User: Fold this.
Amino acid sequence: MTTLVIVGAGPRGTGLLERIAANAAELLPSERPLEIHLVDPHPPGAGRIWRYDQSPLLRMNSMAEDVTMFTDERSTIDGPVRPGPSLAEWAARQTEFAPYREVEDPAVRAELGTLAPTDFPTRRAQSAYLDWVFRRAVADLPPHITVTVHRDTVRRVEGPVDGPQLVHLGDRVLTADHVTLTLGHLDSAPHPRYAADAGFAARHGRFHLPPAFSADADLSGIGAGEHVVLRGFGLAFVDLVALLTEGRGGRFEETPDGPVYRPSGREPVIHVGSRRGVPYHSKTGYRLQGPPAPLPRYFDAAAVDAVLARPGPLELRRDFWPMMAKDIGFGHYHELFHAHPERTALPWAEFLAGYDAHDWYAPELARLIARAVPDEADRLDFERLDFPLAGLELGSAEELQRHLRGYIAEDADRRADPAHSADLGAFLALLSLFGQLPRVLASGRLTARSVGEEVDEWFFGYFSYLASGPPGFRLRQLLALSEAGVVRFLGAGVRVDRDEATGTWRASGSTVPGHRVEATALIEAYLPKHALARTRDPVLRDLHRAGRIVEEVVSDEEHTHRSGLLTIRPGDSRVLDPALDGGPHPRRTALGPHTSLRAAAAFARPRTDSPGFRQNDAAARAILRALAAVPAAGGRPTGRPTAPLAARVVGPGPRPAGSGPEQLLDQVLGGDVVRS
Assistant:
């Protein structure tokens, strides 16, 4: 029997398990039994980020119909396609999808029962879906593969390159033929840039929160009516505001003019600002009104090959972005011309011929668009979208509040109105870029400065701002909070200074010159960015200290960029090991957001050929081939007997009555924790 240990049983570990089940019949002979151990202190399927145990106020920023864990006919993978339901489809017909088990929480059960495909579910609802996906993945495994789940944390992995790996848990050691790290989103010690504010808070008895996952943030140190600055206007801001308002007993009351906020009196006064000074664009609440654009058209494999064939170093914005922008524009204008032809002045074929002929930033293309699209609001302008407050100076803080409320209301209205479905066409084209972007990054041809400043900082930040914003109702709630005086806008170019004399932070922005506010609490409202050198994950920390993993560092004569990511080989996700001269470790694999194989979305949209599915499939096939080649006398876990069942959960404490193999399988597939 051979043994695989998967460290991390959240969505990525579950997705890998699903691909193992799909590929096992081809790549792992039935006479080669495999025992899989999944290790995670959090529930399998959901993992830490999507666990049930979090505030019901926290929501996904994707519609239920746009979330799937399953491959489909658009997936370009070597393994078999195994279709499955999206979150929306599963919620609507749960009893039809085995193994069925009724959701325990009545509130989640009620939400799923009324969930519309275009609703934005709670994270608890997604947790229920992921629990079912995990149970289905286990049920789909062939009889010669068994699964044991350990609700524990891996502390250390060691072992020879050509031999069994020892995986140290809290109370036992597993012996594995292969180890895969699917650790998900991880914590790091705060970046040194936050040290000064942390020290300031400690000296003056103030509250400071560095970037943190919202569900885990302790906000109890912020008092009612206390002035707090939130630096950052993205998804973390949205979650934190929900916890500081509704989470403290406030409520939104629906009226014909939109929601009105009724404070509880326990809220702080929230001052928010950022570099742009505006919130992320909300997600659209509609579907395409015309036929899908045939993407990619310009940023395809042939175009990327042509650029990579050029001599010399390359840059994302100079060499690839014009093609990427043109594809996004193609998605935008394809939808505009096909769904809303009354707002165009040329036939689509004539427009497309001219569009094909010119580069994105060519003056000829700008003139063509101006002639074909009379209304400037229907044209796509990346630079105007990026910094909508650029150059704006207002005379007072109240004028800024009115201006921002108008901007936010206009954005919320536009994203809810299918008359502007060209925005969704652009969004889908933006997603399509990830078909080729991983190839560009893996080529090693981009300069270090381009990887650091143009890819990791600019492009992924811009992508999040345009495509990963909150549901539209969150922006309308933000308007209500502004009207109630609970939220105050600081504008663009936010700056926060420390005043030692008063023990307060002073925040200002460039939009209202001379205006400042004082606050006794400061929150860095950003999602944490994992950095390997500062990781708090014990297994990564130990491997890094031992020199067995390495941070991705891109360096050339002009610049060095340290991404903080664990370096893996793109093709099969093998961990690169400095002890092997930087070569791939044959018995260690890593997948997920902590690795150098970048991704933009937490979950795949159906029929988009998700890069995550391709990565999972390639890694699963490589792992199965490696395990099939292990000599028959593979390693066995220590400290526990073998049981002939498909799945079980291991944890401390006595085993309950009625826990023979059949009962164990039934309980695990039913979502119960079995002690062993």
Residues 666 and 672 are 9 Å apart (CA to CA). The first helix runs from residue 11 to 27.
